[in-house]
Amino acid sequence: MTQRMELRQRILLQTEWRDEHLIWIGYVSPKGYGQITITGLHPTRHTYQVHRVSATILAGHPEQLFDTSLDTSHLCEYKQCISHVVMESHADNMARSRREFCVNGHLRIEDNIYVIPSTGGRACKECVVEWRIRNSTISPLGKPDISP
Question: What's the CA angle centered on 121, arms 93 and 127, to 5 degrees?
């Protein structure tokens, strides 16, 4: 069995289909991306992002794995999805990331953008508020929930 076929089997054993997405259920980095350790592609054992491996090696373009001029872009916004990924220039990736709506369907306009203080990243304000309500004691009205 070739190394590419063995790698494909290793990856498929650590994925599952959810709707139309092939989701990585193996190790996930603190940033939310699936990772896999591979020997033989690099002089030493090396850890790679699974979506990049999927978009390059499994798609038949192993030379792109080390091409630093190309970004791996998720077409579906799910960081652990390995079925909706493409290799493209950084400029194209950034243009793609500036979509009209967030993944939950909220309009992306300047008034609805939250800048994450620690990273400078951008997030949908409506999603942030919804997350805070689900994961804290903030009531939907924005006041602390003091009920027992």
Answer: 100
Question: pTM of the predicted model, to two decimals?
Answer: 0.59
CA distances from 61 to 4, 5, 86, 113, 139 (A): 11, 14, 11, 37, 50
Domain span holding position 143: 99-148
Whether the CB-CB separation of 114 and 98 falls below 8 Å is answered with: no
Who's near 48: CB < 8 A, 6+ residues apart?
35, 36, 37, 38, 41, 65
Contacts 24+ apart (CB under 8 A), 116-122: none
Number of residues written out for the chain: 148
Q: Distance between the two ends of the chain, CA-based, in angstroms?
A: 61
Residue 15: its pLDDT value, please?
A: 93
- Pair 65, 122 in one domain: no
